[in-house]
Amino acid sequence: MIVTLLIEQLFNGVQLGVMLFLIATGLTLVLGIMRLLNLAHASFFMLGAYFLATYVSLLDSFVLASALSIASVVAISLVVEIGIFRPLYNRDHLDQVLATFALIMFFDEAAKMAWGTDALFIAIPKALSGQVEISGGNEYPLYRIAVTVMGLVIGVALHLIIHNTRLGMLIRAGANNRSMTEALGVDVRLLYSAVFALGAALAASAGVMTAPIIGVQLGMGEAILIVTFVVIVIGGVGSVRGSLVAALLIGVFDTFSRFLLPMVFGFTAGSALSSMSIYMLMAAILLWRPRGLFPAIG
Amino acid sequence: MTRSWSGKLRAFCGYLAVLCFTNSTLSIPALAAEPLKIGFITSLTGPISIVGAEQKRGMEIALKHLDGKIGGVPFEVVEADDQTKPDTGVQLVSRMLTRDGVHIFTGLAATNVFMAVMKPIVEANAFLIGAGAGPAAVAGPLCNPNTFIVSWPNDGVAEAVGQYLSQIGTKRLYLIASNYQAGLDNLEGVKRFYKGEIVGQSLPALDVVDYSSEFAQIRAAKPEAVFAFIANLVPFMRQHDQSGLKKQSNLYGGMWLADGASFKAQGDAAIGFVGATHWYPGIMNPQNAKFVADFVAKFSREPTMFAQQQYDAMFLIDSAVRAVGGRVNETEALRAAFKKAEFKSLRGKFRFNHNNFPIQDYYMVRVEKVGDALTHKQVATVFQDRQDSHHQACKMQ
Questions:
Q1: Which of A217, B67, B159, B303 could form an S-S bond across to B189 if both were Cys, CB 3.0 to 4.6 Å?
Q2: H/E element, B316
Q3: Is residue A17 within 8 Å of B212, Cβ to Cβ?
Q4: From B203, which residue of chain A is nearest by alpha-carbon distance?
């Protein structure tokens, strides 16, 4: 019985990890390549979910609504990148933090005006509702499996893009040594826009996939932003591989500590400990490798 | 020199004016030239804003039915949002006591705010008619003759669930509660009356949005029944439905886990949930039929227990103010009138215990789908004339 519980928890952990990976990748690339600390990244996650709620109510197709939501967020991200971030690239981190923090408030307030303060809930698509049997006769929600598989597919696709295409080569080069890349005649402005839009698309896709599970509400991005920072710090800033490993690590570690710690340390102390477990893990990893698991050079 | 003198003179005049103004507002309620003011302080923002907003809706229906007069005298409601913060609540109370001349306070959804404002209110010899929070300490050692609770003790519905599960012979129970004081109090409430085995418990943090880890534990523990006290209720209920756990165990909790406020968001996920309550929309009496009909007409959905509690509180105040002929400064007479509780509660019968908490019945109601709409159907009466568990610690007679 304990084995089937562990297997189900592993599923849960991987699912959480995959979602964290999708959000963290955009953040780590933007920070690694553009040296821009974009706090408003989590707003793209939230906006993806809100757009989905609207499009689903207008269209019959969940897939089409998802694609439209991601496209809408990409369009917004390009406006933000060109209009607001370009003048900020040469300023210091404090200016960037102030500007992107202001963007969080702007997006929250805009979402409040457009969609109201009540949480929105999106039905799980008919074909993916219901449960499937996993080990030992235990059932697991089909939608969660679909989301995990989808996230892993996106992860593999991202890996292929980064390692087998010209854009991927430029991204790796930009993360490793930005000034050398510029010196070789690469149009950095175009590269920056592409990376920024890619990151926004990944965050929006995470928002789209999670929305039917957790619902859509104001501030849902900020809640996950802190954990996302833990992921990129553990993974090493700028490294996509690092963010994948760290996201899965955090996802599984958080899920397991939520049920194992109360068993070990007792009900009350264990529950309290489990909510800080990932931060203790981060501290331990930073003691061992101060620049994260897979630091990008540069 | 001249300028400074005139400045001082102006300041002095201003001070006099304030003094004059303050005095007049303080003395006016007795003259009844100005409307009687009721202070309505509750949590319209913050973590339990859903409760505060629902109290406000109940207040709206009550105001409509009272039609401008409470206990036969003109009145107005001074409303304020305590933001679920105790210090904000205390500031609002002192402002209303001095500036508005408020003598009767109601609302108070949040326990933490309630505990903070109770002292300044009773020390001013004003009255606190609680329509939300029912802290255990106030039912017990801190009970006060000027404090009346129209709603319930905080752990009342949890005790009813525990008692019901014992009555139907449940052997294996799993407990899950958001990790904060109210959650822990509710688990204690269940344990006080549940006789069977507790096969496991989880305390997810208050801000958790994904409960898959907890559901996996429930599945592995194989309970017959699950008791839940989860603040973030809609994601919890929908994910519970998705997890397929309904096939394994029944879900129990306070009725608020699935009621008129969240039926639309929960959809069919709410079906089958069994909640404990002291009132539900289907209770048969003329006042409740009128309340529910007008609420549905205005808000296009069924009212919740929080709206009902605030409505009841307003009609309790109505009965007491009428008994003293609008002379709310006659504290002794007003206190006795509150204690008598001669109003038509939406619950049907209603009376106060010696600790000024209600003596009332508790029911179990199941969420069922009738036509296209979800509704509550009574499945049992768990307690009749139930006094709370803390009243013996109250020395008041």
A1: B159
A2: helix B305-323
A3: no
A4: A271
Each residue's pLDDT tens digit, B281-304: 999 999 999 999 999 999 999 999
Residues near A84 by beta carbon (within 8 Å), at least 6 away in sequence: A99, A103
Query: Is the confidence at residue B33, as pLDDT, over 80?
Result: no
- Contact between B238 and A129 using a beta-carbon 8 Å cutoff: no
- Please tell me if residue B219 touches chain A, with a CB cutoff of 8 Å: yes
Tokens of B387: 């006094």
Q: In chain A, which residue's Cα lies nearest the Cα of B212?
A: A12
The dihedral built from the CA positions of residue A37, A43, A46 and A51, taken in this order, carries a sign that is negative
Residue B18 has pLDDT above 60, yes or no: no
Closest CA to B197 of B216, B171, B228: B171
H or E segment and range at residue B265: helix B263-266
- Please state, as a whole number, how many other Cβ atoms lie within 10 Å of the Cβ of residue B7: 10
Secondary structure percentages of chain B, helix, strand, coil, to 5: 45, 20, 30
* Min Cα–Cα distance to chain B from A218, Å: 13
**Section A89-104 average pLDDT:** 90
As beta bridge partners, residue B172 has B197
Q: Which two tokens stand for residue B232?
A: 């973030």
Secondary structure (DSSP) of chain A: -HHHHHHHHHHHHHHHHHHHHHHHHHHHHHHHHH----TTHHHHHHHHHHHHHHHHHH-S-HHHHHHHHHHHHHHHHHHHIIIIIGGGTTS-HHHHHHHHHHHHHHHHHHHHHHH-SS-B--PPPGGG-SEEE-GGG-EEEHHHHHHHHHHHHHHHHHHHHHHHSHHHHHHHHHHH-HHHHHHTT--HHHHHHHHHHHHHHHHHHHHHHHHHHH-B-TTHHHHHHHHHHHHHHHH-TT-HHHHHHHHHHHHHHHHHHHHHHHHHH-HHHHHHHHTTHHHHHHHHHHHH-TT-SSPPP-
pTM over 0.90: no
Question: Quick check: B243 and A131 CB within 8 A?
Answer: yes
Rounded to a whole number of angstroms, the distance from the CA of B242 to the nearest CA of chain A is 6
Interface predicted TM-score (ipTM) of this complex, two decimals: 0.85
